[in-house]
Amino acid sequence: MPTSTRRTHYWVTFAVLAVSVASYTLMQSLTVPVLSEIEAEFDTNQNTVTWVLTAYLLSASVFTPIMGRLGDAYGKQRMLVVSLAALALGSLAAALAPTIGLLILARVIQGVGGGVLPLAFGIIRDEFPIEKIGGAVSIVSSLLAVGFGAGIVLAGPLTSTLGFRWLFWLPFIVTAVAAVVAVLVVPESPVRTPGRIAVLPAVLLSGWLIALLLGLSQAPDWGWGSPKVIGLLVLAVVLLAAWIRVELVVEVPLIDMKMMRLPGVWTTNLVALLLGVGMYASFGFIPQFNQTPSESGYGFGSSITESGMILLPSAIMTFLTGLVAAPIARRIGPKTVVVIGSVLGAVGMFQLAAFHDEKWQVALANGITGTGIGLAFACLAGLIVAAVTPQQTGVASGMNANIRTIGGSIGTAVMASIVTAHVLPSGFPKEIGYTAGFLVLGGALLAAAIAGLVIPSVSEKKIAKKLDQERNDRDLSIMGA
């Protein structure tokens, strides 16, 4: 039957999707500033408590593309509800966890919620009016960066007033409500990718992602030349090669390698990788810089809350640019917006490397970086959506989000190695480590701008025309069935 007689109003759907993506993204960073408190609460050590982050990262990296592919095959609304239920269940388990082991297990369950990202983009493509798709994708994309920054900003006040367990209670409440609302109001997509999903590609994909991300995350502690790190990275390469080989021969691939080779896909993924290097690593280490006692020759001795407030300009500017990115892209093209945004992000990071003696200097640099990353992120997802068929939207968006995460892992591992290479007698890193690290992150963002020049040029008008044709073909197919 025609789309107009069977679908929920798109703004209702958008509200559910925005809350879902924001909740998932917040869970990536809410625990970052309070790991030391969690370590004390459970009487554990630093190596163990870092798994509160690592477990979530690994789980989300595995399930994001898989849930996207399952949504393409079995229904995006159905898998969105499953993803939200996993976020809610994991948050509840984390809030009640009596031991650090159970808390880490709860974070693994939360990671299944990574599916909300590709599913949200797929639902927007299927349900929204053509002229509204670009704006909705831009805002949801910007929430990826906004949520990450906001989590760091909010962690301090929430923990100091309510206790760290409310970092999980609040997401549980929000995602549980969102899951119920999603069941009631989000329409199921008629766009499906037929065929049974093979198990072996999923196993191999999980294997190389876990080996790669585990090796990268532990390299600063174990040493880049340690047998364990080298072994994990070699294993990742071997499993990656095996995964690609299997995907090329199975009847219904989990990730279509032909799709991944499309110019509009691999170039956008390369930019996403480099942006991930710059964004996630900066959010992880700027709070540490701010909290370093000024007696060390740098830093401000900020509390968790104060440190988060210095990052607030970045979160605000990322959100605001997400609102205006689509209109700008309609005028100058999404590719140009990505390039300009990446350059702005690099300028902010280089400024931070050169000028960080005052809090306002750090806040200003963060605002510039947030503006740039917000612009770039807001257009990346739209470029991916435009480059693939409706049946591939979920898995393509999932891999793009995953590649950002891999970039973040690379950036964080490299930044950690640079920062901790030289340590003061007090145990704090020397200032030169942060300066060099920020320069490297700025270089990654500049490289993202250069890579953005290779993205095939496509106007918003062409994107809209393609989406309109696909929508017409879909509706004719539905009426014919």
TrEMBL record:
Key word Transmembrane helix present: yes
GO molecular function: transmembrane transporter activity
Source species, domain of life: Bacteria
Membrane-spanning segments: 12-36, 48-67, 79-98, 104-124, 136-154, 166-186, 198-217, 229-250, 270-289, 309-329, 336-355, 367-389, 401-424, 436-456
Listed InterPro entries: MFS (IPR011701), MFS_dom (IPR020846), MFS_trans_sf (IPR036259), Tet-R_TetA/multi-R_MdtG-like (IPR001958)
Location(s), subcellular: Cell membrane
Protein name listed in UniProt: MFS transporter
Species name: Aeromicrobium yanjiei
Lineage: Bacteria, Bacillati, Actinomycetota, Actinomycetes, Propionibacteriales
